[in-house]
Amino acid sequence: MNPEVKVVDDVTVLTPHGKLLGGNETDEFEERVKELNEAGSMKLLINLGKTTFMTSVALAVLFLAYVKYTNRGAKVKICSVDKRIQQIFVIVKLTLIYGQDLHDTEEEALASFRTLPVPAGL
Predict the structure, then answer these.
(1) Which member of 34, 60, 99, 107 has the lowest number of beta carbons within 10 Å of its beta carbon?
(2) Residue closest to 73 by CA, chosen among 12, 104, 112, 116
């Protein structure tokens, strides 16, 4: 199943579903992140509230999303992470990478985007 995509204000919200086991479902998730990045999305929120399991392949997608967005001055955040997946984030140090960009709810994450400073020249 393709991840859901919606836009709230100026934030693109990407919501993958079910288990991201490293197969077609993870490829679709990775492709969607890549498409949004290449389209110039400046604010991406990955809502993991409907994701029940992730392999290292899916974790790599999250890491690469952070790197690619950050490298071009954009922002990516994650919300609604299942407790079991949170434990994996801690083990692989993804919590250190995302830091303050991990949020309990979509509403909290969206609100945090509204407090971002506006880049110079905009």
Answers:
(1) 99
(2) 116
